[in-house]
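User: Hi! I'm working on a homework problem where we have to compare a predicted structure to a textbook description. Could you give me the structure for the chain below?
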Amino acid sequence: MEDEDFPEELRDAVKKLEVGLIDLENGFSGLIKQNREEFYQQLDPLSRAKLDLVSLYNINSLVWILIKSLGHNPQVSDVKTELMRVRTVIARCKEIEDRAKRNRVDQGAARRMVASGLWKPGEEKLKSKDTSNGEEQNGGSNELKKKLQDFEDSATPSKKKIRQCDV
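Assistant: Happy to help. Predicted structure tokens:
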């Protein structure tokens, strides 16, 4: 290509495109050289989905670049809707990955911590339902049972009552 014939304002854009394509080719070269089935067998389902999503997004981006470089408007093609669909799936995949990283709350331990925080010196300790099994093990009084029941009722959110109507 001769430098005189090529528009000056497009040189930087074309150089960036060329560098991007070379980087993309280098990034996928290791993946292309491997046997796909063997490589997939080594991955867990979430990693497989992530690999497929990255490949799909890159292919759609290359089609976008091709349409744009041919002088057509990629906004009116189906490529834009496909890219948006892939982006939503990527967000869903990230949400699933983040959900797996979240800490779980041990509700029994939290209940015991709150109950011990409510305990005052000189009072008998409150026993939860699972330890007392409906029986008074340590000579607990009805007052203690009432306090425990009040505590458990306040710990669980109230349920909304729905009225039924004849139609």
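For your comparison, note the following. DSSP finds seven helices and no strands in the chain. The mean pLDDT is 77. Good luck with the assignment!
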